[in-house]
Write a structure and sequence with these properties.
The complex is a heterodimer of chains A (about 325) and B (about 350). With about 325 residues, chain A is an alpha+beta fold. Chain A is built from 9 helices and 13 strands. In chain A, the strands form 3 sheets. In chain A, strands 8-10-7-11-9-12-13 form a 7-stranded mixed sheet. In chain A, strands 1-6-4-5 form a 4-stranded mixed sheet. The termini of chain A are far apart. By secondary structure, chain B is of the alpha/beta class. In chain B, helix 1 packs parallel to helix 12 and helix 7 runs parallel beside helix 8. Chain B is globular, with a radius of gyration of 21 Å. Classes of the chains: A alpha+beta (about 325), B alpha/beta (about 350). At the A-B interface, helix 8 and strand 13 of A face helix 1, helix 2, helix 3 and helix 16 of B.
Chain lengths: ~325, ~350
Amino acid sequence: MKKVELAHGAGGILMREFIEKEIKGRFKNEELNKLLDSAILKNKNKRIAFTTDSYVVSPIFFPGGNIGELAVNGTVNDLIAVGAFPEFISLSLIIEEGFSFEDLEKILDSVKEASERANVKVVTGDTKVVERGKGDGIFINTSGIGFIPEDIDLGYHRIKENDKLIINGPIGLHGFSILVARENIKVEGNLKSDTASLLELWKALYENKIEVHFMRDPTRGGVQGVLNEIAKESGYDIVLFEDNLPITDEVRGLSEILGIDPLLMANEGKMIFFVKASDAERALEVLRGCEFGRESKVIGEVSKSGGSLKLLTSLKVTRILDMPYADPLPRIC
Amino acid sequence: MKYLYEFREGSKVKLIIESIRKICKGKWTIMEVCGSQTHSILSAGIDELLPENITLVHGPGCPVCVTPKEMIDRAISLSKMKDVILFTYGDMLRVPGSKESLFKAKADGAKVKMVYSPFEVVEFAKNNPDKKVVFFGIGFETTTPCNATTILRARELNLKNFFTLIAQFRVPPAIEAILNDPFNKVQGFLAPGHVCTVMGIEEYVPISEKYNVPIVVTGFESFDLSQGILLLVSMLERKEKGVKIQYKRSCKPEGNHKAKEVINKVFKIGDLKWRGIGVIKNSGWVLKEEFAEMDANILLKEYFDEIEETKEGCVAALILQGKKKPSDCALFGKECNPLNPLGAPMVSSEGACAAYYKFKR
């Protein structure tokens, strides 16, 4: 079986071949084809959104996806979250010596598919191979550039009392899928990661002129982690409705067995939209028409000034939802 | 989801709470013994809906919280020994011993692994005969049968490299310790449903008789807890003692014969120290002599001092005995928080102080 060698990252013939065949051959576009030290991009006289993220997920292949599409979708969604339309991404690979070439090709194929779906071009990148034992198979870094339309202004300053919080589907899928795959927990059911690009959702909301005030993708820290941050930064209390939280049976079951709240688990294909109250119904309609928005739901609202995250329980009692302090740990009983 | 959603429906729970309001005339102090019950009550907000003359106090039923500091020190010391790998449950990792937690020790290179099932540890020991494998297993009667089965499995495989560090607590002696206290205020108990599913109610009947208190074996969902409170309050109002089972879908009066059998094969009753409370007579399960060679303590070369909780102002002991609430403590949420726990009930998410910190600040 063909394996990645140190020479694949050493600047010689093998690396050149690798880049020509595996990178340029796959991602061909005007900007990348030149293979310059930097890609030269055209500024369209719009505000530029720029983000970067590193992907170190273990296992590399998990139910519902792999590190490749995750690296594209994660960065693309970070651009979308500030209202940008993503256009370019970079792709940096740090590969451990001896990594299976077949797996690498699978990963690169899913980078290609995901970038096509998200309408972004891979325009620059880097490949490094580290000695066996100095990496965990493969790490990927992607940076992304997108452009923000002039009529879009998203930010903490736009969050207003009564804004409705909409999420585009069930929570905790990615976090629990990774946990189950990593720890080899045997569960029945159809649990898989939700990794997806959310471009279609944002495009639909934008084109339908829904008044969106803020967006955030609840990745690490989960819904509870990111909303705590938003409550604090915006200065408003945010109230989640326990009865409205979309949770699948698989996630609920695991959460009960392991004692880990789905609100704390990472999502990779979800966005929380803060929408003007009077636009909420229309926003739901628009989102539900999109592939990754069919199960969209209002899960909460912005309340009075304060700065904390709260939960309205099934018993209609309000309690706080604290900032998590690290990765959740399963409990004994 | 069956056996879950139907026991969390807000509308049903509200009806039960209405009934509690109707029948409750006296002023009652009730203890839910188990940390998961405390967690569930606060998480759903049941405490906020009860009539004012019912006071819920929170019991010592969080095994992570009551595991003594020196046990954690021992576990850390073991995990740093050559050729030793220590396995434990997730929520044990963050609990501080006298100097550090297993998490911090792990970051420093100690060999600590988290497990979901202790059988994984036996498998690991079988496949790695050159390593000494230690399972740090704690819990109440709920985890005892599972830990006992693990030990029996290791014996069956004749593993010479499998060891256990065990802190296995028993609930009934802790309830008696609370009732024996001259300053006790608790008038009725919600007993832990899972513990009684294993052990049955046999041990609780004499306690109810002797101390003249009603006990209701209760489940963990908001419906269970409100129904348990309703049953208990109606017994209190009628001055009735005895043991009733609310958690009938799981708990039988005689318990689980098979589980009790494996416990008795491996363990015998012994005295145990509870963090924040001290030694309670007969409150633990300790390894029987024939399993002494699996006791990880024999690997240890150093002696571990018993550590007292001395933080001035911390009322952990009183909270664990239901004499005070976390919110009565001056340190609560200030110097003492989940990142820097000063007393036992703050160290695990199931502890009463941690639950207050999480839900009620």
